[in-house]
């Protein structure tokens, strides 16, 4: 075999040889003629579907009928697949189903004789045919009218072919909901199919069978689905979800407020963690519909209280200035001065010293003296102060006080404006804003509704706080002015009903024009010119709204309770629905009805409470806490807004209690909920706060009436300096001997119980008898001596071995649940857990089960403080133990899928409850409550309207509508269950989307 070059040389040599021999004619074959000799085999359609009927055609040059066959190449051979005849015109046709693989075909006509003629064999040129798989696409969208638009694309357009949109039923079968016939590659299905007809349903496009080709479907369009959010906590919180079906975007919400949007998987976002309990939810949005994920909770614990400091880790409670005489309130001016009101009627200024900047503050300096005008008995006095928002331009300062009634002894209450001249408040600048009607013209029962009269009975629940809203209107807090000794207590003080009467300026928060004192047009009961008392009312049903704060369009009220509860109330300043917020007093206190007897009795003076106590008749508190042995006196606060506070704490609400002696912080949601309440300072450090305000340095300051000082809450970020680690207790011994010992005093005021009084009267001095030690438990082993003394350092007091106190203080870290605390001691024992009194009485065996207390504790650290008082008995001993005897109950809410409301507005619901300690479901059922609130959104923010409270049921149906704010309402449900031990658990919230809602987590 030669290569190509040799072959070429051979051909050329041959041609030259022939030329040398003489003239030669070289005839080469005509390629076109050769091609024409082999007929072309064509197929139709050109691009067939697999299985579709395919027509093969060719034309022989012979114009006779002759046998033909269709052959298929198989390897190196041809196999006959069809036989037939050509027409008289030589046309050959065969029909086959389009194969799914490339197949080479040809037509063969063998040698043939007919009519004495010989016809040579004819073989067509091979043709390769192959059917292609069908491709069907479906694109869906939702038009503004809520109809489903479906666009179907097909890879093989065929005239008259049926194209359908189909939905899959629960049984897996497909049903047609829209159909068209088309010959185009794109078909629009615009039948009037509503989203409600296909919500949550898989969809597909179906193209019918055609000429042997099977019907084909598009990929199934699955409705969107979304998982429970996962929460990964660290320096930041990362939220992530997984989705199924068609999803375009995922929106993330925290506590009902949108925080992030992600447009591509993996779906996630990162946010800064905040102290408190939060709920996270995500909405996956697809082309047609969206779906809300289940809710997940996340809690970030606040720093625990330092045992030695009494202040939460990272905080410092610093004294700015002392020497104040019963300070009641304070406000900072833009120039850096702090103006403080003193109960007796003076205003003093504390200013940063020039040489030390803001690090040092001047001694108090009197800048206004109203002592001749102010009645300071009881709760009275100079009680409130506010600086005008335009103080830098006008120098206005507003004061609230009780006006001395003079000889007739009929005090009244006023708000007056004074002007700051840079040095003092000018007495001559006095301008009366509120309370022009005084004395008998205001105090007589028939006169209390006189416009601009602020009546007062007795010496308590007086006028109190002042503040400005964002529009520059003045807010005034007024107590019910009706606390006095009456037979039957509250039941006999019918004047307390004034808190419910909109024409009486008592038990209210007022909103007035700071220049005229008239009510402003935005007030819910405004009657036109603002001169009526009702026109001034912003909120009613309050016992003593002693302190409050404005934050955005929210007003946060601290309402001082009567016998059982202190409450924080939250309301919107911009409801604008014409109804006045009613917080229930005197018909309700906290979440409970007050002791007014049978208010349904026709002769009861309290029959009006039937309406107040009815569902929707009053607002429940956002937060309430019970009285202790010291009662309670809530001091509403302000917010940790300084950038000096860490992100996790900034914006938390600060409040305190004057009698229980604490300062706490809480998370206040944009919807008005209060959660994650934690201690910031206990009774060893809080100092009896009566006012919180933002100081000139941006830190939150407090006014302590107990120590007569200004304190500030500064963030240091430093850890605790506790001498004893968590789980141990600092033990100290204290001297109760000496000439002033309570055990040497005579108690004659109550001879029957004089044996108790030495112990009741004893307060352990701060000084210890010896260096404190860290102990593993709260225990004083039985002793008749002096436990701190030694042979080298004996007890040299007048009564060695007697008259001493022992104190313990430490932190424990526990799981949530009910703890049984057992108190034992030879004499008197006091025990506090988290500043709440647990035991303050004798603790010897005589008192039996009175020494056993069940206490519900949350997960985390808790401060225990105990004292044992040893008098003259022979032996001293004490022991306090605790054990977990039960866990908290559980409760969850079951709602329809994705929380949608039925067309008639009904929402079926049920609760699943259980208790690890064996409380049966029936018992738990009687201690459940379902709280339904309507969240009214304005943009991304909302305020909450209580809708209903359903108690003692595990299932039911309630109705919702969006008449109040069409399209802008979302229902939020929360369930609470309490077990027999008193432990309560509140469920994660569930969000319910009203028809047409475009707000919050319900935005489509």
Question: CATH superfamily of the domain at 323-478 and 529-539, please?
Answer: TolB, C-terminal domain
Count of discrete alpha- or pi-helical segments spanning 4 or more residues: 9
pLDDT averaged over residues: 89
Sheet with most strands: strand arrangement: 57-56-59-64-61-62
- What fraction of the residues are assigned to beta strands by DSSP? 35-45%
DSSP, total strands? 73
Computed CA radius of gyration, to the nearest angstrom: 44 Å
How would you sum up the major sheet? 6 strands, antiparallel
**Approximate helicity band:** under 10%
Structural class: mainly beta
Q: What is the CATH topology classification name of the domain at 323-478 and 529-539?
A: Neuraminidase
- Please give the alpha-carbon distance between the first and last residues: 79 Å
The assigned CATH architecture of the domain at 323-478 and 529-539 is 6 Propeller
Shape type: elongated
Low-confidence stretches: 1-36
The CATH class designation of the domain at 323-478 and 529-539 is Mainly Beta
Task: Note the topology.
Blueprint: H1 4-21, H2 31-36, E1 42-44, E2 53-59, E3 67-74, E4 77-85, E5 91-97, E6 103-109, E7 112-114, E8 117-119, E9 122-123, E10 127-129, E11 136-142, E12 148-154, E13 161-168, E14 174-182, E15 186-189, H3 195-198, E16 203-207, E17 216-217, E18 225-226, E19 230-232, E20 237-241, E21 243-244, E22 249-254, E23 257-262, E24 267-271, E25 276-285, E26 290-292, E27 296-300, E28 315-321, E29 327-332, E30 338-342, E31 346-350, E32 365-369, E33 382-387, H4 391-394, E34 396-403, E35 412-420, E36 425-434, H5 440-443, E37 457-458, E38 463-468, E39 474-478, E40 482-483, E41 508-512, H6 533-536, E42 537-539, E43 545-551, E44 554-559, E45 565-572, E46 588-589, E47 592-593, H7 609-613, E48 623-626, E49 634-639, E50 653-657, E51 662-668, E52 674-681, E53 689-694, E54 700-704, E55 709-715, E56 729-735, H8 757-761, E57 773-775, E58 778-783, E59 804-814, E60 817-825, E61 828-833, E62 836-842, E63 852-857, E64 860-870, E65 876-886, E66 890-894, E67 906-914, H9 921-925, E68 928-938, E69 941-951, E70 955-959, E71 969-978, ...
Parallel strand pairs: 37-40
Antiparallel strand pairs: 1-2, 2-5, 3-4, 3-6, 6-9, 6-10, 7-8, 11-12, 12-15, 13-14, 13-16, 16-17, 18-21, 19-20, 20-24, 22-23, 22-25, 25-26, 25-27, 28-55, 29-30, 30-31, 31-32, 33-34, 34-35, 35-36, 38-39, 39-41, 41-42, 43-44, 44-45, 45-48, 46-47, 49-50, 50-51, 51-52, 53-54, 54-55, 56-57, 56-59, ...
